[in-house]
Amino acid sequence: MPKKRLWLFLSFVVLSFVLMTYQSKSGVLAPLRFLTHPINALNNTIHSIISSIKEPFRNIALRDEENRRLREELNKLLLEQQRYRDAVIENIRLRELLSLKEKEQRYVTAARVIAKGNDRWSNTLVIDKGRRDGLGKDMAVITVRGLVGKVSSLSDSYSSVLLINDINFSAAVRLEESRKEGIISGTGSRNCILKYIPHEDDVKQGEAVVTSGLDSLFPPDIPVGFVSKITKKGTSLLQDIEVIPFQDTTRLEEVVIVRR
């Protein structure tokens, strides 16, 4: 019996020693340590699933942000392009005015259009030059394309211009090829009417019309327009001739004033 107890005691001592040796190397025993790997695997699987679900939404958000940035850059480029185009067009207009100044001996000044007439029944505009700039009543207003109208009223700093297509406008003109003379009048619309050309005179469609200078208002040989339509009525002594002005008065920004 004593031997049996001795062996039991020795076995307990050996087992205790083995356990202490194991714990010193591997740490405290954790009875649930065998569950760690399955839990970690499950956690990684869930994280992977969530990431795969979020990824398309993240890509959409990034794509939307990139599209917004590209739209902003495109708008900036379009704005810069428009500014460049406007600068080029303005430069062309100013060069045209400069060339007109150099070749036109009766040049007074150039002016900028600052307003349209406020009367819907008349065709007028306002320019930023007046008496102090040398302007006078009835001076001719022109562009490189041709006659625009005449100064109808003025102050020290501003002037009103009666346009060629106004019903109150008229000027002595002649047909450039046939040299037949008449009077051109506005109609209130885009076209004008050439009056007092006899029925028997031969007028060609497309023939140019210029000022004659016989009215003591406009200098001679200013381009006016071209013949667009000719009507000869059987019993009428005169022809009805429609003329389209060379200068479109709805698209004016700068003009030149010349003296008689």
Describe this entry's structure for a reader.
The chain is an alpha+beta fold and 260 residues long. It has two domains: 43-103; 107-258, Rod shape-determining protein MreC, domain 1 (Thrombin, subunit H, Beta Barrel), CATH 2.40.10.340. Helix content is 36%, strand content 27%. It is rod-shaped, with a radius of gyration of 47 Å. The model has no long low-confidence stretch (mean pLDDT 82).
The CATH architecture of the largest domain comes to Beta Barrel
* Low-confidence sequence ranges: none
Q: Portion of residues in helices?
A: 25-40%
Alpha-carbon Rg, integer: 47 Å
Kindly state the mean pLDDT as a whole number? 82
By secondary-structure content and strand pairing, the structural class works out as alpha+beta
What's the number of domains? 2
**Portion in beta strands:** 25-35%
Give the termini distance in whole angstroms. Answer: 152 Å
Give the spatial strand order of the biggest sheet.
1-2-5-4-3-12
Shape: rod-shaped
Q: Within the CATH hierarchy, at the fold level, what is the topology of the largest domain?
A: Thrombin, subunit H
| Biggest sheet layout | 6 strands, antiparallel, barrel
Along the chain, the helix and strand elements come as: HHEEEEEEEEEEEE
User: Total helix count?
Assistant: 2
CATH class of the largest domain: Mainly Beta
According to DSSP, the number of beta strands is 12
The CATH superfamily title of the largest domain: Rod shape-determining protein MreC, domain 1
Write the layout of secondary structure elements.
Elements: H1 2-26, H2 36-103, E1 107-116, E2 124-127, E3 140-142, E4 147-154, E5 159-163, E6 170-175, E7 181-186, E8 192-195, E9 208-211, E10 223-231, E11 240-245, E12 254-258
Antiparallel strand pairs: 1-2, 1-12, 2-5, 3-4, 3-12, 4-5, 6-7, 6-9, 7-8, 8-11, 9-10, 10-11
